Amino acid sequence: MVDFKIVVPARHGSSRLPGKPLLEIAGKPMIAHVCARALEAGAEVFLATDDARIAAAVSDMPVTAVMTREDHASGTERIAEVAEKLGWADATLVVNLQGDEPLMRPELIRQLAEALAAEPTAQVATLAAPIEDPSDVFDPHAVKVVLDRHGHALYFSRAPIPWHRASFGQTDRAAAADYPWLRHIGIYAYTAGFLRRYVGWPPSTLEAVEALEQLRILWQGERIRVVPIDSVPHPGVDTEADLKRVANIMAGSDDSSHSRPIDHLMTDQ
Question: 264, CA 20 to 30 Å: which among 30, 196, 235, 257?
Answer without folding.
Answer: 196
